[in-house]
């Protein structure tokens, strides 16, 4: 993405891309970088919380795809900076990884015997100050936590985007940071599914076995339960991933994690966020779309929609159990869902088809992530329209 | 199954697993043990990200065209 934006003369871009330009980043030496400057509407901040290995990356890719409509450019790391940077720049959204606010690097955590999940390993003061500055339209020099080396690298420059997505372990942990978020999402993966996913991810690694994967999950669990999990009560939307109910546990032949039951829990009464619904808003509905219009193979598909309470909040829940065989048949399901915030008929299906190779594209994880992405786009547009209608008292006079 | 993990991360990873087993030999409930397994988790995630990155550049033509956009097999015009 970067190369395109500099100039149309390809000779220049090739010269620039040769990589000689890399140097240690000091405030004075920031290479000029591509980024979306915030529109007059200011920056909208979205928080995304999940444990490591729970699909934050996939969600971010779906989200940036929805938000960056109109260009073929995918989110890319900042051009010419640190190759270990965790930041993604799209043309509407910038995604920053909150691991960059670790106060202790890998060696430091080891020395003190704390995990990255522990608040003591993170600098919430700096996180709050910098996110607040970006939201107010000021650029910040944010540290970089290098995952490969486990060290804190020199900072990179982050300029205020239209939409700032902050993803990591603790976006809703600190009350001040929470107050900055315009919308928050929590990815809640049940332990059995987490285990299955980590096996898929790590089994090929040398020296990693079932035992060591299990031991790793077990060892991190107390901190996860204490510091990460409680954040879901603050989320405006929670995506819960659970084992299927369509297959009885008895004849489940090691398909753990292949067929999923996914719930999208949407908080009621959140400003600029109208929950999606199935057929009739506020009813309780169970729907099996398989039949003449939708071909399903074993174990089929089942949708549910019902009102519920979640940590004392009124919520609406959409649930999908099972998986799609043919992605284009999703249009049949989409046409029965309302309040999706799509711009045209079939947009959800089209977004899913665009990324058919992403994990979760044939089940509820991909569907609900896409719907939440559209909801965030809608929220952003509403917020900007509102700010334009009532300009702040301190608007700069050109 | 896709590309293999780059050797440098892969080596670090198996090393950290051995260290974690060692750290947990005395006391599985200690902070030291949790921190050691947390490092394993961080490296697993880094390894999986590295594999994803390799997957993106696994198309030989795409990789070539990144460096040689002006050649016959790489030129694309929008209109």
Automatic annotation (TrEMBL), chain A:
Q: Where would I find the Phosphoribulokinase/uridine kinase domain in this sequence?
A: 45-247
Q: Which SUPFAM superfamilies match?
A: P-loop containing nucleoside triphosphate hydrolases
Q: Which InterPro entries match?
A: P-loop_NTPase, PRK, PRK/URK
GO term, biological process aspect, one? reductive pentose-phosphate cycle
Metabolic or biological pathway = Carbohydrate biosynthesis; Calvin cycle
- Which CDD domains does the entry mention? PRK
Where found in the cell?
Plastid, Chloroplast
Signal sequence annotation = none
Chief location category: plastid
Q: What name does this protein carry?
A: Phosphoribulokinase
Q: Name one GO cellular component term.
A: chloroplast
Q: Which PROSITE patterns does this one have?
A: PHOSPHORIBULOKINASE (PS00567)
Keyword annotations for this protein, in alphabetical order, are:
ATP-binding, Calvin cycle, Chloroplast, Disulfide bond, Kinase, Nucleotide-binding, Photosynthesis, Plastid, Transferase, Transit peptide
Q: Which GO terms describe its molecular function?
A: ATP binding; phosphoribulokinase activity; protein homodimerization activity
Organism field: Oryza nivara
């Amino acid at each position: 993405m970067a190369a395109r934006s500099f100039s149309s003369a390809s000779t220049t871009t090739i010269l620039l891309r040769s990589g000689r330009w890399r140097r240690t980043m000091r405030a004075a030496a920031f290479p000029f970088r591509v980024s979306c400057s915030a529109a007059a509407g200011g920056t909208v901040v979205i928080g995304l919380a999940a444990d490591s290995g729970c699909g934050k990356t996939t969600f971010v890719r779906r989200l940036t795809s929805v938000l960056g409509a109109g260009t073929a450019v995918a989110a890319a790391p900042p051009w010419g900076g640190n190759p270990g940077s965790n930041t993604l720049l799209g043309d509407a959204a910038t995604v920053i990884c909150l691991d960059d606010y670790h106060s202790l690097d890998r060696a430091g955590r080891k020395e003190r015997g704390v995990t990255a999940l522990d608040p003591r390993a993170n600098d919430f003061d700096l996180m709050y100050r910098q996110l607040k500055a970006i939201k107010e339209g000021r650029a910040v020099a944010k540290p970089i936590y290098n995952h490969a080396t486990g060290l804190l690298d020199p900072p990179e420059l982050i300029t205020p985007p239209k939409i700032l997505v902050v993803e990591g372990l603790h976006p809703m942990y600190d009350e001040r940071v929470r107050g900055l978020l315009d919308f928050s999402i929590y990815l809640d993966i049940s332990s059995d599914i987490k285990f299955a996913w980590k096996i898929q991810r790590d089994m090929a690694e040398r020296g990693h076995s079932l035992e060591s994967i299990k031991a790793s999950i077990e060892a991190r669990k107390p901190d996860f339960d204490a510091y990460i999990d409680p954040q879901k009560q603050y989320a405006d939307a929670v995506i819960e991933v659970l084992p299927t109910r369509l297959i009885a546990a008895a004849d489940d032949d090691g398909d753990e994690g292949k067929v999923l039951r996914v719930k999208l829990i949407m908080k009621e009464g959140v400003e600029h966020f109208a929950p999606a619904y199935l057929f009739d808003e506020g009813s309780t509905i169970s729907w099996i779309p398989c039949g003449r219009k939708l071909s399903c193979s074993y174990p089929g598909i089942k949708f549910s929609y019902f009102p519920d309470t979640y940590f004392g909040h009124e919520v609406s829940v959409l649930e999908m159990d099972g998986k799609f065989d043919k992605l284009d048949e999703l249009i049949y399901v989409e046409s029965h869902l309302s309040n999706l915030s799509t711009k045209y008929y079939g947009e959800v299906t089209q977004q899913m088809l665009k990324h058919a190779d992403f994990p979760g594209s044939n089940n509820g994880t991909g569907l609900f992530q896409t719907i939440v992405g559209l909801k965030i786009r809608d929220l952003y547009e509403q917020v900007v329209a509102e700010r334009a209608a009532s300009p702040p008292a301190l608007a700069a006079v050109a | 199954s896709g590309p293999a993990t780059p050797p440098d991360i892969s080596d670090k990873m198996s090393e950290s697993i051995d260290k974690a087993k060692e750290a947990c030999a005395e006391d599985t409930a200690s902070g030291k043990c949790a921190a050691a397994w947390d490092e394993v988790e961080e490296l697993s995630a880094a390894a999986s990200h590295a594999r994803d990155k390799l997957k993106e550049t696994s198309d030989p033509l795409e990789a070539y065209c990144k460096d040689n956009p002006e050649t016959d097999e790489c030129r694309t015009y929008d209109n």
